[in-house]
């Protein structure tokens, strides 16, 4: 868990591309967290963003 949104967002983006699975950046209590989207129950946390490595074309 992390309290810095920019750092958490960067880690979520990198994790989605490393694992090649969609990940969700969420807020729980007073910290941010990141989990693969299929492992997260939406009722438990407040979703900030979802990063999908397949949503964009290949890097140029």
Tell me about this structure.
The protein has one helix and three strands. It has a three-stranded antiparallel beta sheet with strand order 2-1-3. It is globular. By secondary structure, it is α+β, with helices and mostly antiparallel strands. A hairpin with a 2-residue loop joins strand 1 (23-28) and strand 2 (31-36). The model has no long low-confidence stretch (mean pLDDT 84). It is 25% helix and 30% strand.
Supply the key terms.
60 residues, alpha+beta, 1 helix, 30% strand
Low-pLDDT residue spans: none
Distance between the terminal alpha carbons, to the nearest Å? Answer: 32 Å
Q: What structural class do helix, strand and pairing data support?
A: alpha+beta
Beta-strand residue fraction: 25-35%
Neighbour order of strands in the largest sheet: 2-1-3
Query: What would you call the shape?
Result: globular
| H/E topology pattern | HEEE
Helix percent band? 25-40%
Rg from C-alpha positions? Answer: 11 Å
* Secondary structure tally: strands: 3
SS field, number of helical segments: 1
Mean pLDDT: 84
Largest sheet: 3 strands, antiparallel
């Amino acid at each position: 868990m992390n309290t810095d949104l920019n750092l958490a967002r960067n880690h979520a983006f990198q994790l989605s591309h490393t694992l090649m699975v969609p990940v969700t950046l969420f807020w729980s209590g007073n910290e941010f967290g990141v989990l693969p989207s299929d492992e997260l129950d939406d009722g438990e946390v407040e979703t900030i963003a979802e990063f999908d490595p397949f949503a964009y074309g290949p890097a140029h």
